[in-house]
Specification:
Order of helices and strands: HHHHHHHH
Oligomer: single chain
Number of domains: 1
Strand content: under 5%
CATH architecture: Alpha Horseshoe
Number of helices: 8
CATH superfamily: Tetratricopeptide repeat domain
Mean pLDDT: 90
Low-confidence stretches: 1-10
Largest sheet: none
CATH class: Mainly Alpha
Length: 181
């Protein structure tokens, strides 16, 4: 989905503290505002500014991936996912539902449909398949995510991101399973 309303926010709040962490936080918050108000392309640009300030922030890479996914740039989204997993492999086991990040919940479903259409036309697009598996994994589609990761591991055997996402699914499943006493 492309940024259909790229209007400029004239009255953007300006940060008062210019420390690196403060500026990064400012850009993330501004990016969140853009993302939640359907200005996804602006969100990618703003999150990228934050990432330049805090290059070791793995979670921010996932946020950037979500914005790239929203504008249909699956290769860039996959790259950001890989960066995040490289910086912190444990992110793959985190429990979050990314649908809650959207200001308009239906947009996530629209973006998934656009991705599915892309994959119908290019079924072996490994980067788009990774984005699909990642989005399924972090939106409650654990079984579907596992199936996609299995298919993807046939296309890209030994890929570290696939391995990390599969291990993350296993850890998350173990954490959700009640222990017998």
């Amino acid at each position: 989905m492309v940024d259909t309303n790229p209007s400029v926010v004239v009255d953007e709040p300006k940060p008062t503290d210019t420390s690196t962490d403060s500026l990064a936080r400012y850009y993330v918050e501004l990016g969140d505002l853009y993302f939640q108000t359907r200005r996804y392309l602006r969100a990618t640009e703003t999150y990228a500014r934050a990432a330049q300030l805090v290059p070791d922030d793995a979670a921010l890479r996932f946020v950037i991936a979500d914005a790239w996914f929203a504008v249909g740039q699956y290769d860039k989204a996959a790259y950001a996912i890989r960066q995040g997993l490289h910086l912190d492999p444990e992110l793959a086991a985190s429990e979050t539902d990314k649908r809650g990040f959207y200001g308009f919940a239906e947009d996530f479903d629209k973006h998934m449909k656009a991705l599915a259409k892309h994959l119908d036309e290019r079924p072996l697009d490994a980067q788009a398949l990774l984005v699909e598996a990642y989005n399924l994994r972090f939106s409650g589609g654990y079984i579907e995510a596992r199936k996609k990761l299995e298919k993807l591991s046939e296309i890209l055997p030994g890929d570290p991101a696939i391995k990390q996402l599969r291990e993350g699914l296993d850890k998350a499943a173990a954490a959700r399973t009640p222990r017998k006493v």
